[in-house]
Structures are given as structure tokens and as C-alpha cells.
Amino acid sequence: MTAEAPAVWRELGRSGAIERCSGPDSARALGELLTDLDSRYPVGVVLSVCVQIASVIPLLRTLAPGDGGAADVFDAALSGKAMVALAATDEAAAGSDLMDLGTRIRQETGGPRLDGGKRWITNALWADHLLVLARSRETRHFTSFAWVLLPAGRAVVRPGAEALFTGAGIGDIDFTDVRLDANHVVGRPGRAMAEFVRAMAGERLAGGLWARALCRRVLRQTYRRLRERPGGTGVLWDNAAVRDRFARCLVASSALDAEVAAASAGPLRPASAMLLKVRCADTVELVLSGCVDLLGAESFQDGGLAWLRAETAMFGIAGGASGALLQGIAQHADDLLTEVVT
């Protein structure tokens, strides 16, 4: 299991890229960074950076004021000196059903305790600190959650994926009767879930920027190979059916480009963020599947496009499964149709 991601994170901190790409109005800088990373590193390394810049850093920026411990972790993460894993997906509930998560803070005589588990957590294996979304009250309500920020050594971490997502440090985290210090519960009471949802909008924009870069890269590579590989009396690109299939990939990629540009231009509302997330998943699947088919057997070489297609299926799962998001989009139908008409 490669530990390349921590070295990349440290370098981004030294260069100021983390701060430059994680603040307000940073979409252009973040897009340029993700394009560069996508061209040089495996999917897992880009995922490691993307989650921290798009979600962890903004959350820590919200939690840091008035909290010395969170402020110290924020400064260390911003400078690349510390990695923080966002532990939200819960072992006791479906990834898209955070309201039923089972990781909870228990108030005991000797102080608060954390119980539960998180699964498929990016950067779990590299993290110096864990930012944990936990239940603080039993009531099933938006305000029944809190943030716990604690050293990673307080929990038991196990590798969660070793073949795919090399470099992402994905792991499962076990919190069994973990004693919490008074300063480990951070942020304003009852605000954790709202802050998490707001952070997801930023992560979905980052996902769009990354998906755009990835699709462009794959299409350029495929186009070059189609113009090089012999086919019939010429090259594969001479075949009208090949050009038609490739053009459909270009159409989908161009539609994603337009949606990402619109999302980057201003505040991203929840419904628009969901639309972008589903668009990313659909476009990446269409483009990768199309290019795998066009290149045939060579796609199945070690590290080939078929492998990349398997990894990028996470665009339809991580940060909210497409099926669950479609339900949310349907609930916004009136507003979305009004926007289209006007």
C-alpha cells in the first residue's frame, strides 16, 4: 500500500496550494490543481487530496474560531503538516442515510465516550486526526449530531481497500468505548449535520472539476490511439461507427463542462449540487465505458482504462449515491422547472 498521498499533501501545503484552493472563490485554482494531479497521480491519491481540500479544510475553518484545539489542527492541515480524515459514513447505516448513523457520544460519569464505527473512510490509514460525525442525542433530528476531533491513535484503523484506490488510505475505523477529552467535542451544539451538508456542496463542485479533468484526459488519450491504431485499410478513426461513439462521449463531456462552469460561477445551492453530482457520475460512466469499448482488449491491460472505469464508479457512490440523490432532485422539481422556464 503506497503512502504517496501524505508526501503530496505536505508538498501542497509547503507551496500554499491547500490554502489557495480551499477558500471562497477558489474554484478556478482548485480546477487547475485537480487537473494537474489527475495527470500525474493515481485516482486514490487525487481522492485523498480532493476530500481534504474540498471538505475537511472548509469544515475545520468553520470549527476553528473559538476552539484552540480545532484551530491548531486547522493550521497544521492547511500547511500540509497534518492529514485529517473525515469520518462520516457509518457502519450502522447506509452511506446515504446519515440520520440513522450509530456512532454516538455517550455521557458517562468519568467523561464522554465515543462508541461505534466508520467504514470506507478516505485517508483513514494516513490521518493524524479524525473528524467524526457522531450522534449526540437519540432523537432522529437534524440537530442531534456533533463533531468529534481526536487524534487518530485513539481509534483502531483497519485497511478497507487495497486493490482499488491505491494511495487513498481507505480504512474502517473502530471506536469502542473511546474516552474523549473535554476539547475533543468541537463546534456549536446541534450544527454538525448542517455544516456537513454545506461541506458536501463544496465536495460536489470539486468532484465536478475532477470529473471534467479526468474525462478530458481519457478522451484525449483515446482519440490519439484511435488515430494511431490500424483498422481496415487505414486507422480505427476512419470507421464511421467509431467516430459516432466517440462523438457521443464528447457531447456528454461538453455538457459536464457547461454544468461545472455554471456551478463554479456562484454559490452552489443544494439542488444544483445534487444535479452536478449525478451529472458527474453519468458522464464519467458514459465516457469511460465508451472509451473502453473503443480501445478493446488494450483497455484490460494492468492499469488500463477498464481498471480506471472500475475505480471511477465511485463518482456514483461516494458523497451520495446517485439513486438517493435523484430522489432529492425530484423533491425540488417545482423550483428546478421554474428556473428553466424563467
From TrEMBL:
Organism: Amycolatopsis alba DSM 44262
Signal sequence segment: none
Necessary cofactors: FAD
UniProt keyword terms in alphabetical order: FAD, Flavoprotein, Oxidoreductase
Pathway membership: Siderophore biosynthesis; mycobactin biosynthesis
PANTHER family to which the protein is assigned, alphabetical: LONG-CHAIN SPECIFIC ACYL-COA DEHYDROGENASE, MITOCHONDRIAL, MEDIUM-CHAIN SPECIFIC ACYL-COA DEHYDROGENASE, MITOCHONDRIAL-RELATED
Gene Ontology cellular-component terms listed: cytoplasm
Residues covered by the Acyl-CoA oxidase/dehydrogenase middle domain: 85-180
InterPro entries assigned to the protein according to its UniProt record, in alphabetical order: Acyl-CoA_dehydrogenase (IPR050741), Acyl-CoA_Oxase/DH_mid-dom (IPR006091), Acyl-CoA_Oxase/DH_mid-dom_sf (IPR046373), AcylCo_DH-like_C (IPR036250), AcylCo_DH/oxidase_C (IPR009075), AcylCoA_DH/oxidase_NM_dom_sf (IPR009100)
A Pfam family per the record: Acyl-CoA_dh_M
Family per similarity comment: Belongs to the acyl-CoA dehydrogenase family.
Gene3D superfamilies assigned: Butyryl-CoA Dehydrogenase, subunit A, domain 2, Butyryl-CoA Dehydrogenase, subunit A, domain 3
Identification of the protein by name: Acyl-[acyl-carrier-protein] dehydrogenase MbtN
Transmembrane segments: none
Tagged with keyword Cytoplasm: no
Residue ranges annotated for the Acyl-CoA dehydrogenase/oxidase C-terminal domain, each copy included: 198-332
Biological role: Catalyzes the dehydrogenation at the alpha-beta position of ACP-bound acyl chains. This results in the introduction of a double bond in the lipidic chain, which is further transferred to the epsilon-amino group of lysine residue in the mycobactin core by MbtK.
GO MF, one example: flavin adenine dinucleotide binding
One GO BP: fatty acid beta-oxidation using acyl-CoA dehydrogenase
